[in-house]
Inverse folding.
């Protein structure tokens, strides 16, 4: 939610900041803006995407060696020019950008209004900025001290960058709950919400922690806590290539990421899955195997697509490890004062590793003594750092707002983890364990087979793109896949879609079925096959349009379905890694054919860092 970029050094700041904003646009695209200091402070901002801002400021003076930029996902105040960041302070001297929410901004605004301040936006950010300026004036102190004092008073989440016309050699930055990475170059520093705007210039980065303030000059980086004590910056080397964050010849990141899945799943399994040796090597699982297999209960905490991966994990872990699993929406779990027993294990699943609800749910559970295992894609992210142990999904940067390759990465990690735990616990036979290791090994190749020719899925998308509703149905391991298929379609094509366990259909949703309703069945050959065939017939009997995901070679389903998308056969425990792929493609093509921006669906943002 909101992307922030900053540059200080010897180059011109504007081109670097704008390029960085474009890389971060997946985080929000309601408005964009930059602030630059040359001789004076200039602020340019515009409702819409970064390109709209660029067009609007052609011909303006865009010089300066220090600059900050922002791409917004609106929280306080509608998307508009006036609510766009950066904001200027009342004196006109300071400019600030912010990712997060200041929860007590109303009280502070009231205080400032009584002192005669006027606000030109509806944002909490402008309030915080003027609060900082007011402290600086009243306490006759420096900006850094004023910032620290202000941060101690505010409640909420923030990553802020602050510049001062009278001190063009410094960017002040601070974070709590919203990410901040600082890239270290030669006589230059880069600041951003994630490493994607930085990777092109340097691989040496510092991940700033909560409650830290960074004083960034071109040749110096000082980190302090809010008590004004210096903290040694911990420099990490980025393990990411520029190509990973570019479209590489595809029209959209979403399509590129769907097609990357044979490689990303392979990368996730590589070095971990060793079927010939009958082994799964996962350091984080090995080191904590007793805690994991003796857990009286496992609670999985996640949001959205990651929550769907959690549902697959529930089926897998309960079946193979015989440990009770609960899957929780992080946003509900965090406010429910959940009961956590000694020994309970929390598994957090998150692509970004920054989702605010998941993060806070984990912090609460950690305080109650739970052991936290993180399944995260984004290396060095807040959830990865907060977890006691974990396993990265190694899916690479996911830029398309709708999650695709991160989901299959999560499924791959979960499958390996469940099998490793089951083997250690003795709840799986050696034959089944070995068979599943080989099944998993074959997945990347099978995904590649599905992706070889997608023209029939494109044709199905064309046929149904004008439907106003869709139903997605599945049983067992394919039930979470049905939910994921419905979520993808909603996000990308703005068509109302619902996912249901196929057997639940008769308890209500079947009333929706008529000749206009496309019903997508995830009907691969598994232990529920006969039952789902009956469900298909029930829909056909009511004149519904049936689209099926079926196993290759199935002769029955195509005789009943209006359209069929085939996937290679696989054991049902690893089946979701295949059955989700046609659904990702279906939603991509429907969105595309409806003329929508599939990489930046309306109202969404990639990383939900506000609750
Ligand atoms: C859907 C999607 C979201 C995310 C959710 C959690 O395509 O991307 O539903 O899955 O916001 O995000 P992470 O996994 O980053 O915690």
């Amino acid at each position: 939610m909101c992307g922030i970029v900053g540059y200080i050094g010897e180059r011109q700041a504007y081109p670097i900041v704008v390029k960085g904003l474009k890389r971060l646009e997946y985080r929000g695209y309601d408005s964009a803006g930059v602030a630059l200091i040359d001789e004076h402070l200039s602020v340019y901002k515009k409702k819409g995407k970064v390109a709209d801002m660029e067009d609007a400021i052609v011909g303006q003076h865009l010089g300066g060696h220090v600059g900050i930029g922002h791409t917004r996902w609106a929280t306080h105040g509608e998307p508009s020019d006036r609510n766009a960041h950066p904001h200027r302070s009342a004196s006109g001297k300071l400019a600030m950008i912010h990712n997060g929410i200041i929860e007590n901004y109303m009280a502070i605004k009231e205080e400032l209004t009584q002192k005669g301040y006027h606000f030109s936006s509806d944002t909490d950010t402008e309030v915080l900025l003027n609060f900082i300026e007011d402290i600086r004036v009243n306490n006759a102190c420096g900006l850094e001290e004023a910032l620290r004092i202000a941060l101690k008073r505010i409640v909420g989440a923030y990553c802020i960058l602050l510049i001062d016309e009278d001190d063009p050699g410094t960017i002040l930055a601070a974070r709590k709950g919203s990410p901040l990475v600082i890239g270290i170059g030669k006589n230059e520093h880069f600041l951003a919400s994630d490493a994607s705007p930085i990777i092109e210039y340097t691989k040496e980065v510092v991940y700033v922690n909560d409650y830290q303030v960074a004083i960034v000059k071109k040749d110096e980086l000082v980190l302090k806590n809010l008590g004004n004590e210096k903290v040694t910056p911990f420099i990490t080397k980025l393990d990411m290539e520029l190509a990973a964050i570019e479209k590489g010849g595809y029209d959209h990141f979403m399509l590129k990421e769907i097609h990357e899945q044979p490689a990303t799943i392979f990368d996730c399994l590589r070095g971990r899955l060793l079927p010939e040796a009958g082994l799964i090597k996962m350091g984080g699982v090995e080191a904590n195997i007793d805690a994991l297999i003796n857990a009286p209960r496992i609670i999985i905490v996640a949001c959205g697509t990651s929550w769907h991966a959690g549902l697959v994990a529930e089926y897998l872990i309960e079946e193979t490890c015989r440990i009770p699993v609960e899957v929780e929406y992080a946003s509900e779990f965090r406010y429910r004062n959940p009961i956590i027993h000694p020994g309970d294990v929390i598994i957090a699943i998150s692509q970004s590793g920054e989702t605010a609800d998941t993060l806070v749910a984990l912090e609460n559970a950690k305080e109650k003594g739970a052991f936290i295992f993180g399944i995260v894609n984004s290396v060095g992210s807040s959830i990865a750092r907060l977890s006691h142990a974990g396993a990265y999904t190694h899916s690479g940067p996911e830029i398309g707002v709708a999650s695709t390759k991160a989901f299959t990465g999560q499924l791959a990690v979960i499958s390996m983890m469940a099998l490793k735990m089951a083997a250690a616990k003795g709840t799986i036979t050696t034959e089944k364990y070995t068979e599943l290791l080989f099944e998993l090994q074959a997945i990347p190749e099978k995904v590649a087979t599905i992706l070889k020719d997608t023209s029939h899925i494109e044709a199905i998308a064309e046929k149904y793109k004008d439907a106003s509703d869709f139903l997605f149905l599945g049983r067992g391991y394919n039930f979470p896949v049905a939910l994921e298929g419905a979520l993808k379609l909603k996000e990308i094509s703005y068509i109302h879609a619902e996912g249901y366990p196929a057997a639940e259909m008769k308890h209500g949703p079947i009333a929706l079925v008529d000749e206009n309703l496309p019903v997508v069945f995830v009907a691969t050959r598994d232990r529920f096959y006969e039952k789902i065939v009956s469900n298909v017939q029930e829909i056909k009997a009511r004149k519904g349009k049936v689209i099926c995901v079926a196993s290759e070679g199935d002769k029955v389903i195509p005789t009943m379905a209006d359209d069929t998308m085939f996937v290679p056969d696989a054991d049902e425990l690893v089946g979701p890694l295949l059955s989700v792929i046609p659904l990702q493609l279906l939603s991509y093509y429907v969105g595309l054919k409806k003329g929508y921006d599939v990489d930046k669906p309306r109202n969404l943002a990639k990383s939900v860092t506000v609750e």
Observations:
- The two ends are 10 Å apart (CA to CA).
- The mean pLDDT is 94.
- The longest helix spans residues 405-425.
- The pocket of fructose -6-phosphate is lined by residues 303-306, 350-352, 355, 358, 402-403, 487, 491, 607-608 (CB under 6 Å).
